[in-house]
Amino acid sequence: MLAEYRIEGRRASEIAASIERAVGSGALSPGQLLPPMRELATDLGVNPNTVASAYRTLRDRGVIETAGRRGTRVRSRPASTARGSVRVDAPPGVRDLGEGNPDPALLPPLREALAAAARHNAEHPGLYGQAPVDAEFARLARAALDADGVPDGPLAVTSGSLDAVERVLAAHLRPGDAVAVEDPGWGGLLDLVPALGLKPAPVALDEDGPLPAEVERALAAGARALIVTDRAQNPTGAAVSERRARELRAVLARYPRTLLIEDDHGHAIVDLPLHPLAGVTDSWALVRSVAKAYSPDLRVAVLTGDAVTVDRVLGRQQLGPGWVSRLLQRAVVHLWTSGAVDPVAVARSYGERRDGLVRALAERGVDAYGRTGMNVWVPVADETGAVARLLHAGWAVAPGARFRMSTPPAVRITVSELSMDDIGPVADAMASAAGPVPARSYG
């Protein structure tokens, strides 16, 4: 069974490391069966409990899975295999519409913001023992959350949205718990969930957000948590409408012990109001990063939630990085107060390009989706073939496999790099590449 690779080690950590190295190098393939614990213990001359501990560590890391009598196997998609690797590199002469970056022309210059942070630090040096959240940052962030109807709660600052989601999940869940996630959904999140030893439970959505019946199904089946993107959902552009929010809150009210996590990364780049779900369940969190509107490299996100959740996040953060740089927090304060970004103008710019592409595709008989944000989701008949044909036509797009579990094939087009003059040529190439698509391919 393992003739081509010999597992080694005397301690649990050594055995786990040996298996993980083999998975990373490809010596152990996805789905490959591992030896029963007692058999491996005999081969290595160790106690079966040592092997059991090694296997438990690997399950917690999302490297292997155990399915009762069917034995223990390498995960079909190990957590170390990032969906980000499912990508198309744009060769010279090909326009890259697949990376998902904001338009650099819409990001504010950071020189003055960073200088303002440095001046503040000269007067009030950042030292150990100070509060992890800058007071002015907290005041402004809380005021913005209040204006959008987000329930009152303490604040934390994390290094981006995914950092916040990871910390909240780790604060409440244990390996093996199921998490309801949007399908299609953010590739980073779909990697993170199994990496934490959790089980993703796909939930279908339409342009108004997750479908209530799908959420009900997942929670009734035992999902302990639900993660929802409020606006500018990646990759579809969905935004939770007022009616959908009421429906989802009604579902959550029947499952009050569900951990609810909302991601509002689209704040300041969309022109639709926020309809938060928070406050229905006992445990909840809402996160807003500044990446899309101000700079991906600032690595600052606001996290609010119930007192227990935020306290756990802050406590664990204190044992690791301690805090997110207060210099960066002060830079964001300057950006917020100086009017460096006009959210209405930014939303209009992305909207004109996104809506223009969706209309152009519709005129060519191609269904496409992109209600908010900077991405357009286009169902296709053959994902690999569509990506290849678009590449040949001079356009690199993101394969839908990066974002989907049960959803049929599609591609994601990011409009940030497009001008209005590009819309027609992209739509022509996409129409030629899409092929006949089944009627129900999304939502």
Radius of gyration: 23 Å
Helix content range of the residues, please?
A: 25-40%
N-to-C SSE string, H for helix and E for strand: HHHEEEHHEHEHEEEHEHEEEHHHEHEEEH
* Main pleated-sheet profile: 7 strands, mixed
**Structural class from helices and strands?**
alpha/beta
Q: List the uncertain runs.
A: none
Number of helices: 14
Mean pLDDT: 93
From the spread of the alpha carbons, the general shape counts as globular
Strand order, largest beta sheet: 4-12-11-10-9-5-6
Q: Report the span from N to C terminus.
A: 43 Å
Strand content of the residues, in percent? 5-15%
Q: What does this entry look like structurally?
A:
It is a single chain. With 443 residues, the chain is α/β, with parallel strands linked by helices. The protein has 14 helices and 16 strands. It has helices at 12-25, 37-44, 48-60, 111-123, 135-147, 161-172, 187-195, 212-220, 242-253, 307-319, 326-338, 343-363, 383-392, 423-434; strands at residues 64-66, 72-74, 95-96, 155-158, 178-182, 199-203, 205-206, 209-210, 225-229, 259-263, 283-289, 301-305, 375-379, 395-396, 398-399, 410-414. It has a 7-stranded mixed sheet, sandwiched between helices. A 3-stranded antiparallel sheet has the order 13-16-15, covered by helices on one side. A two-stranded antiparallel sheet has the order 1-2. A hairpin with a 2-residue loop joins strand 7 (205-206) and strand 8 (209-210). The protein is globular. 47% of the residues are buried.
